Amino acid sequence: MSHAAPRGLRRLAFGGDYNPEQWPEEVWREDVALMREAGVTMVSVGIFSWARLEPREGSLDFGWLDRLLDLLHAGGIRVDLGTPTVVPPAWFYRAHPEALPVSREGVTYEFGSRGAICHSSPAYQEAAARITRALAERYGDHPALAMWHVHNEYGVPVLECYCATSAAHFRRWLAERHGTLEALNDAWGTTFWGQAYGDWEEIQPPRATPTVANPAQRLDFARFASDSALANFRRERDLLRELSPGVPVTTNFMVSPTQCDSVDYWAWGGEVDLVTNDHYLVAEEDRNHVNLAMAADLSRSVGGGRPWLLLEHSTSAVNWQPRGIAKAPGEMARNSLAHVARGSDGAMFFQWRASRFGAEKFHSAMLPHAGTDSRIWREVVELGADLGRLADVRGTRTVADVAVAWDWQSWWAQKLEWRPSQDLDTRERAEAYYAALFDRHLTVDFAHPDAAGSAGHPLVVVPALYLATAAAGAALSRYVADGGTLLVSYFSGIVDEHDAVHPGPHPGALREVLGLRVEEFQPLRAGQEVRIDGPDGARLRGDVWAETLLLDGAEPVWRYADGPAAGGPAVTRHAYGRGAAWYVSTRLDRADLDPVLAAAAADAGLASRDDLPHDVEVVRRTGETGTFVFVINHTGAEAKVPLASPGTELLTGTRADARLAVPAGAVRVVRLDD
Q: Most buried residue, 294, 366, 509, 569, by CB count within 10 Å?
């Protein structure tokens, strides 16, 4: 997939979701004038407008949308035009109540919110295709059209449906995936608890059961749900490509592990013409800019490293978290430019004008309830001007230092019931290792485990890979044998793609490259800690987990000083081929991860960046238009950052020498001379 930018856009995208159907038409002209004042270049339109476009089945009303698109075009504002298939109208559900999704417990979700969709429903698929075709035929060559926006946030708020229609679809999906019942029974291990199937019609979705359901069945159903939604996206996408050739087609992802865990974005990334993502800070989280950086790096990575687009974030508070914490002055600009630093070709928001009614009326917007005489509006206008100064960044690529292996399917598998400890948490480990890398000023590319070493990064980190296929194990082994450095955390390499334990001792698929065997898991009690002694008297503390390790070539670097594995190795290094593989068998917090990560990074030949201040991001984008260094100061004090060469600071227009001063809470972007 080649990178496809929004058609006709010559600057970074800046704007947001625009829902004019919530306002009388006399407001629209005011909106366009204010958009021009703010420097808006693109808005997303029509995402929730099915009932307005088709008020009765087969009766289409495009007049209002004609007038709106013409008005936006006259104002020089590009349009990301949505297919409204996330919100079928009330008349549709009255005619097709079977299209409503059913929970695992058998509860039918009703109309009155959004995303109440059974993705296996033929009635939904047909109706979605009809409205998509009608939109494409009418607006496919409209001069304002920049790109198509299919649906909205697949997987949010619900993806899986357990109704009878989904059950029949699931059986067809299983037959295609496994081929025969014998193969399915073998993959699912149905000899356990007498679960063998003799006929396809005996198989049901993994609905609520008296005790734990078959984990392989649960895992396949999660795959099926993601694939079913993807098939519906493809159906709309292919119609749009046929009827509106040359216009990019996308859908907005939510790749942050804090926001959507039901979609396998590795499977989706190659299906869109441009990866777009929605991201919202966890407002009360300590150092939430780290989570933002992680989401941005993951968005870039599912698109293969190409530029992507932040299609939604917030100007200030959101109203669906426990507490709507407002962003501090300058925080919106830092958030926006941090996404741009990590590959986004713009910064879009939900939404343009704050709603007066509905579920999100207390959600912040570019034009807030306070109007234009407000801090938020003034910051929006300032941000629009700043993004205008960064037009040459568009199309360049972010430069990464290390790779992190991440797999949504492994996460799904580890979250299932009856694991050795309820404290095992894939997301927590990924965030902890990412934070440790962030604090060492290392920019991350995420990668599917099968390809984590293929891009030639000197260091690959595996923070949690419970499900590791034989192919992933072989790929990581080749990477180390060819000279790479691998750092693996505990409870990785344990099961295959069917959630079956790999033959032989743990860690299964990674046993050879790590040069060790796990004789026994040693989960720790709630609140229990273990001491770990290392080189030169260094001492670390672990919690949640420990392991009894037997070494088959690996060497101990840190040892357990107490606890159930006392005296045994805790952190090991294995020289393998021309590289080395490190293993961490306990949970270390972010601070205690640092010396282990420092040792692995030194092994990989990565230079220390101790001269860079804490909580100051330094990220590079490079391409035909030059090399751009983004420096984002998240602290309350001025920061001074060394530059590889002098350049021009684009936001202020000043020269930057070998040492750049960045005020507290500010962002600077330097185009290097060399």
A: 366
